[in-house]
Amino acid sequence: MDDFVCRYWGKAQPKNPETPTWHPLAYHALDVAAVADALLAKDLRRLEQLAYRLGVQTEALHRLFVFLIALHDIGKFSRYFQAKSDLGPLGSLPNAPHTAHDDVGYALMLDSEFDLAPLLARFFDVDLDGDIVLAAVAGHHGEPPAGSPNHWLNGFGSKEISDVRAFVEATASLFPPLSPPLSFGENAKLMSWYLAGLTNVSDWIGSSQHWFEYERPTLNLADYWRHAQSCARQAVEEAGILPATSLANVDPKHLLPQLGDHPLSPLQEAACTCVLPSGPTLMLIEDVTGAGKTEAALIVAARDALTMTMHQSQNFSRTLN
After folding, report:
1. Which of 36, 48, 163, 192 is most buried, judged by most C-beta within 10 A?
2. Model-level pTM?
3. Cα-flanking dihedrals φ and ψ of residue 188, to 5°?
4. Domains of the chain
């Protein structure tokens, strides 16, 4: 098994006594990336809109985001971070200086000694967009990464540097490189807001032991990636964070379950069948008390909203094509 899998912990606060005491850093990285992968697949329309604004292909943007988010905790390879828990494979290190792992991660992504730029450049223009893109991923605790003090490099000897590179190389091999690599230019800041939010949410879900139990370092990265994807699909369904899907049609019985088996009133039937204009609508509904005016208004409003949603989707699809 690769050292970068079995030598470094990513999580070490076990809630289940039957699981291992620590979860490999490489596995946690793929847990979070798999959540991002599932979220992007389940909210494809938003990703398509962002890709259109950025002038890039949707699939390429998807692949870039998942790869980058897999690197979000790369600062945890530092021996100073590993020393924070005696449950990990290396044990604790007395008097180790504290440096936030997100700041460390951002610093080492840009540091020439680690020479990660050629690996990252397979996916995006590091020279043009590196600072903004990598800051969005590294700053996954709610704020941009800060500059790390000089002593952060002391947490990386030749072994840690070698393992960081091996991890990034192995992770990149899971996702075919982009040809050509993406370049965002003036749109980098726009993209970074979405990437930062996606990284935060994915890390929150991917850190939950409810969906991602601690695992022993027995699987290579490719095999664990398939396992993480399976867990992630369940996690995003149960997390309650996916956008609501639009109904294909308006069924009054579904919209108004309180009606039960009672037949619709004539006014409500008319609300189901009347012709609606294609643009914004103002409709006045008048009838006697008890005719079901409120329900009729809800039916018309739902039909109008559905019509507008379908119209916007068709226009957006035509724009993309």
Report:
1. 36
2. 0.79
3. -60, -40
4. 3-238 (1.10.3210.30), 252-320 (no CATH)
